[in-house]
Amino acid sequence: MELLLPQILLDLIEKKRFGVEYQPIIDMENQDIFGYESLSRFFTHSNKPIRPDIVYASLHSSPLSLFQVEYEQKLIQLSSAPDCERIFINLDQDSYFASGDSGVNNSFLKLFNSYPKHCITVELIENSEINDAKMSLKMIENLSLNKIQTALDDVFGPLSMLSFEVLQLVDYVKLDKYVIRNKDDKEFMALVQSIVDYAHLSGKKTILEGVESKNDLAIAAQLNVDYVQGFLYKDHFINVFQGSSD
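Above: the chain's sequence. Below: its structure in token form.
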């Protein structure tokens, strides 16, 4: 994984060169906006975008810096969110535990508790590490005790390793855009369908990401997912930038 040069990373943190993009999540039943996913955006001093995965990979070697940036991002994502809309917010397990307190005094938990419970869903990133799955379980348990809904992100992503215990606990299952890319693989799509069917059987909702065309929308309908998300609805994206400019 590519990493940022230290001076660029320090500048990003010091000047809070952060932004957020709200991508609509669309109800398949009526094509109305159900909610928004709040996605982190980062920029250089010249306002050139920096890929979020590179930023977070660069931050993981410094847990406190990771916590600081993630927390600042969540403040922006919640304070700038569209009124009266459900907001889906990604949270890295490492960020949650970096503060040293995973219980009632956890900074993220306090922040989420200050926001209307019916308007927030915390997305957990599906990982390939066993330890991440264990942390996910602990984090979900803490969120659930506080009546905060959760979603499992990136299911069927090429690098994910599905934890069925985590899957059982979440309220939403988000299917990675990899599903659409592999729509012609019958065996793979049968597995996807089984997860969608399981989600509905257990009272969970499903979201298909990466929908960019009417053909992709037809795949979503065939799978019988509840919601979709992607560049087909880019006219409804909302962008907010906060931070110092030079």
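The mean pLDDT is 91.
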